[in-house]
Please model this.
Amino acid sequence: MRMRTRRSTVFVALVGCVLLAAAFVAAGCGNGSDSNSGGTKTYTDTDYGFSFAYPADWQLQEGDSSDVTAGGSAAKSVGVFDPEGAVADDTYIDLAQVSVYELNLTVDESMMPEIQAEVEQVLASLESQATDMETIEALSEAEVGGMSGFKVTYSFSKSGAPVTSTLYFLFSGDIEYQLTLQAATENWEANAPVFAALVASFQPGPAE
Model:
């Protein structure tokens, strides 16, 4: 049974993972389970109950390494990365990250306009820390796994390498999921089917 801690902030409790270039190495994830089917694996988290599919030749690891922050720390982070993908400063660029945040209230649809305003404020803080960020797709509404939320796409550079990243902010009861999909810009189109499949397969844990 996991222990729940309540955050003092309202709504978005966000780590700025848009500049995530995680120093992932081939280390196993200790708090989840994998099932293998054909060319994909499915990760199911034993703490929060969320799940997603990813390519069987990608590697999984808990934790992240973010260049910037805006808001509080994630209660849980799990990432998958392409070990044959782009690398900058010995860190992997082509990856997907799921971060979980515990909120101090239960979100419903009536709150979404206020949440959008707060997401916009957090993103403005994030952008202020990274002067080379360019908005590719402006913040818009999104729905994933039955959850309502928002998404935005940026481009920026990591150690001189052009990078593209889409962020999803999704809400299920008193839990926020942040999905970060990232690749070297030259690999973005090639990775698009991988990212689309991961988003399509993502399921939140049971709402509390």
About this structure: Residues 112-128 form the longest helix (17 residues).
